[in-house]
Automatic annotation (TrEMBL):
<comment type="function">
    <text>Converts cobyric acid to cobinamide by the addition of aminopropanol on the F carboxylic group.</text>
</comment>
<keyword id="KW-1003">Cell membrane</keyword>
<protein>
    <recommendedName>
        <fullName>Cobalamin biosynthesis protein CobD</fullName>
    </recommendedName>
</protein>
<dbReference type="GO" id="GO:0005886">
    <property type="term" value="C:plasma membrane"/>
</dbReference>
<keyword id="KW-1133">Transmembrane helix</keyword>
<dbReference type="Pfam" id="PF03186">
    <property type="entry name" value="CobD_Cbib"/>
</dbReference>
<keyword id="KW-0169">Cobalamin biosynthesis</keyword>
<dbReference type="InterPro" id="IPR004485">
    <property type="entry name" value="Cobalamin_biosynth_CobD/CbiB"/>
</dbReference>
<feature type="transmembrane region" description="Helical">
    <location>
        <begin position="302"/>
        <end position="319"/>
    </location>
</feature>
<feature type="transmembrane region" description="Helical">
    <location>
        <begin position="158"/>
        <end position="178"/>
    </location>
</feature>
<keyword id="KW-0812">Transmembrane</keyword>
<comment type="pathway">
    <text>Cofactor biosynthesis; adenosylcobalamin biosynthesis.</text>
</comment>
<dbReference type="GO" id="GO:0009236">
    <property type="term" value="P:cobalamin biosynthetic process"/>
</dbReference>
<comment type="similarity">
    <text>Belongs to the CobD/CbiB family.</text>
</comment>
<dbReference type="GO" id="GO:0015420">
    <property type="term" value="F:ABC-type vitamin B12 transporter activity"/>
</dbReference>
<feature type="transmembrane region" description="Helical">
    <location>
        <begin position="56"/>
        <end position="83"/>
    </location>
</feature>
<dbReference type="GO" id="GO:0048472">
    <property type="term" value="F:threonine-phosphate decarboxylase activity"/>
</dbReference>
Length: 320
């Protein structure tokens, strides 16, 4: 029955998500990873260290994080394998490391808030992006929401699922630990350029296949979204993905842009500094709340395609 772990995890998490009362009482696994990452940085990323020492310290921190996650999750998986319905518990634990429901809810909230007012839209989008929301007009808020939706489809859903299929609970947990470390310390600034180098590079490696798989899934999902273009989705992904500084982030973003005939990307403001980022796609750039809803429809159909793929893989493994 472990072959059905991944499709069931997708279906259950998409319907129920992670209960809010659990966040309030015990937190969330990503929060636990974050606490450990922060503690390790306090101990290891000291100003007195040279750049090379910081790089080594970051590598040690990443190794300790992954070792801790590996020991805990392999131990849990081993114990659960001895129990009659242990695979079902493992599936429920795996759902905590997927983000389908919360991602959709957060992006939908931006659309609803933007319909009310620009200030409400800026407030809503500030919860899901790192850029300066006060510098965004309505089109900027909408583009930021769609860009986050596209990128997070890959690293919040497809990539965790990919490693769950390959390695079970330890696989999805290790991926999320690396991805969390990259989001916290994988920045190109004075504080993290060297210390976060290992986390950023490993995250790039782990996301290489899932990012391209995400673009393919978006392309297939276009067949189920009125007006979406599968040919433009894939062509834009292949043409524009390489423009991104990241070897992976451009793939889902460019696929969304091509599929919906949007222009995404472009200059962004972070902490008062304008970062000139490339544009993806060559369509409509003046987006609004309805365009966010269209992107959400493409997102949901992408999840449907992913679930179908997961079921097919599960059946093949079940009867091999």
């Amino acid at each position: 029955m472990t072959s059905l772990l991944a499709p069931l995890a997708l279906a259950v998490e998409r319907r129920f998500g992670y209960p809010q009362h659990l966040i309030e009482t015990v937190g969330h696994p990503v929060m636990w990873f974050g606490w450990l990452i922060s503690w390790l940085e306090t101990c290891l990323n000291t100003p007195a260290r040279s750049n090379e020492q910081r790089k080594l310290a970051g590598l040690v921190a990443l190794g300790l994080l992954l070792l801790a996650v590996l020991i805990v999750t392999v131990g849990i998986s081993t114990i659960l394998s001895w129990l009659p319905l242990g695979w079902l518990v493992e599936m429920l634990l795996a759902t905590t490391l997927l983000a389908q429901k919360e991602l959709g809810r957060a992006v939908s909230a931006v659309s609803e808030a933007l319909r009310a007012s620009l200030s409400a839209g800026r407030e809503a989008v500030s919860h899901i992006v790192g850029r300066d929301p006060e510098r965004l007009d309505e089109a900027g808020v909408a583009r930021a929401a769609v860009e986050t939706l596209a990128e997070s489809t890959s690293d919040g859903v497809v990539a965790p699922w990919f490693f769950l299929v390959l390695f079970g609970l330890p696989g999805i947990a290790l991926y999320k630990a690396v991805n969390t470390a990259d989001s916290m310390i994988g920045h190109r600034n004075e504080r993290y350029l060297h210390y976060g180098w290992a986390a950023a590079r490993l995250d790039d490696v782990l996301n290489w296949i899932p990012a391209r798989l995400s673009a393919l899934l978006v392309t297939l999902a276009c067949f189920f979204v009125p007006g979406a273009s599968p040919s433009a989705a894939w062509a834009t992904a292949r043409r524009d993905a390489v423009k991104h500084d990241s070897p992976n982030a451009g793939w889902p973003e460019a696929a969304f842009a091509g599929a919906l005939n949007f222009t995404l990307g472009g200059p962004r403001s972070y902490d008062g500094e304008i970062i000139d980022l490339p544009a993806f796609g060559s369509g409509k750039s003046s987006l609004g709340p309805s365009d966010i809803l269209l992107a959400l429809l493409l997102y949901r159909r992408t999840l449907d395609v992913l679930l179908g793929l997961s079921v097919a893989i599960g059946i093949i493994l079940l009867f091999r």
